[in-house]
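Continued from yesterday's entry.
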Amino acid sequence: MTYYIDTNIFVRFITGDDEKQSPPSYEIMKKLSAGELEATTNEAVIAEICYVLTSKKLPYQLIPSEVKERLVPVLALRGLHIEHKRILFDALDIFASSPGLDFVDALNVAHMNSEEIELIISYDHHFDQVSQINRQEPLEVLEVLCNTSKST
């Protein structure tokens, strides 16, 4: 039987901040590590974990490199199966090494890298710090398309 794991189980395990919920969450992770439990989750849960752990509004306030340091071993647990796990690892690398880039944007870059896409249409200037991609604003793209259609 495969289970689905929600954000709060991961957060309780990573932070150990709840004396009632953290020990059972630890046991779940221990079972996953030993392969005694099969479970899955998705990218939205991982994104929420990153948001919760880095939020200035919550008590954890970790920096992205600390989130990566704590989350990578969890994602690598033997019994935890996540679609696109390699992309998640890449996204955590990008997240940890790109100040100002939130995890969802790092995940976008990781997907772009995986699909060998180099251009992103966005108003978000923080993409400019990521060397693997180039950002264009919508009007730039529309201008290129207009010029291309005129020349054909």
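--- second protein ---
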Amino acid sequence: MSCKKCAAKINRNLKLTYVNCASCQCIYHCRCVALSDTDVEYHKQEKISWVCSDCEFLKRSTRNDDSPLPKQLHKNHLDKTDNVDMMDKIYGTLQNTIATMNNRFDKLDESTKVIASLVQENSALKSKLNYIELKLEKLEQLLLINSVDIINLPVKPNENVCSSVLELIENGLKIPIKVDDIDSCYRVRNTNTEKVGKVIITFNNKNIKQKIMDKQRQMKKIPSSLVDSNSKNLIFINDRLTPYRRNLLFAAKKCKLEKSYKYLWMRNYKIMMRKTDGGVIQHINSLDDLDKL
């Protein structure tokens, strides 16, 4: 059996530690109902039935008895009333807290939906921006369709860059060319004094440039001694690339080594890679394409 008030088990072997209500037959620890050993002994000797406070209040309410309660019963009643009031307050506070939290969760749910919508919109705008940037880059590259970079063209005293270029093309590559075929020609100053600055040339028509690029592929190696007999470097003639495409080509060369691709080349400003002989040709238009390899 357990005490009705504290719910702890009662040891029936200890007679003076518990008491039975004569009305509801419930068992209580004496300490839980404020009965001393003397009180319990007195009730037994005088054969006085003990009634718990709940049953006492029930009897009094039934017979409309407004007389003062015994001191201990009154105290127990006040304790219970205070506990009920406190529980009501706690319950009310808990309800308010739950209502507040529900309101906050509703607002959080609305905010989450707004954020999800913004993320989706931002993703769409990012895709559009990337598309526009690629379009602009292609247009920028088209403007360079007649331009080339010449690397390691020897520098002569009191240099006339255009004359050095004409000498390289006519005498070295054996391609007929006139001054009027060149729209612009200049050397870029190199901050590294040990290296020769590259020469940037723009031709007036695409045919001249194409002949030069074809001749370079045919020769494979162009010695700088064709322009300066004392120079021992190799001259390279490359398509003039936009900064974006130049960086992409650099990243592709790095990827080629890391992922063991056998071939990397450019054709009409398009970067292509192939892992093995006869393998699938991969077209590289962005860094994302390299990540997918």
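The two ends are 76 Å apart (CA to CA). The CA atoms of residues 168 and 227 lie 6 Å apart. Will compare against the first tomorrow.
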